[in-house]
Amino acid sequence: MYNGLLHAHSGLRYVVLVLLLAAIGTAYSKWQKADTDDSKMYSFALIATHIQLLLGIILYVISPKVEFGMMSERLYRFFTVEHSLMMLLAVVLITVGRVRSRKTEGPIKHRTVLYFFAMALIIILVAIPWPFRDLGAGWF
Questions:
Q1: pLDDT value for 95
Q2: What are phi and psi of 72, to 5 degrees?
Q3: I want to staple 27 with a disulfide (CB 3.0 to 4.6 A). Which of 35, 112, 114, 115 is the partner?
Q4: Does the pLDDT at position 140 exceed 70?
Q5: What percent of the chain has pLDDT above 90?
């Protein structure tokens, strides 16, 4: 079960990244055109991010890489504290950005999505355990 969840969590990261990039691109283009219509791409990115969060919470509970007594080791500290908190912050930013955009009108709604989703994307890119960071994770 652990390996299946880990592969699902690792594979879904690419879906989340693509959807965030698409939402950011959509927000930028709609903001520049002063478009007032809402985009479903924002909701798709939000939903995929929340599914990724749920998988991450389950993995956090059952993972052998989460060990509070081993904080001096880089691998355990990364997955126990750094990865978890940064990803949670990114999900909060995406959620707040989407909620605030629904409460505003005009092109400001797209600018709000652009700023919040872009900040979240930067945090996510930093918090992903890429293979070149030597944290015991692969590309998939």
A1: 97
A2: -75, -20
A3: 114
A4: no
A5: 57
Q: Which residues contact 3 (CB under 8 A, 6 or more apart)?
A: none
- pLDDT of 138 reads 63
Distances (CA, A) of 114 to 10, 12, 27, 123, 127: 25, 22, 5, 14, 20
In 10 A of CB 40, how many CB atoms?
Answer: 9
Helix (H, G, I), strand (E, B) or coil at 90: helix
Residues 6+ apart with CB under 8 A from 72: none
Distance CA 10, CA 121 (A): 16
The amino acid that residue 59 corresponds to is L
CA 16 vs CA 6, 33, 49, 62: distances in Å: 15, 26, 6, 22
State the pTM of this model. 0.89
Assign 136 a pLDDT band (cuts: 50, 70, 90): low
Taking the CA atoms of residue 48, residue 52, residue 58 and residue 60 in that order, the dihedral angle to the nearest 10 degrees is -160
Cβ 126 vs Cβ 86: under 8 Å: yes
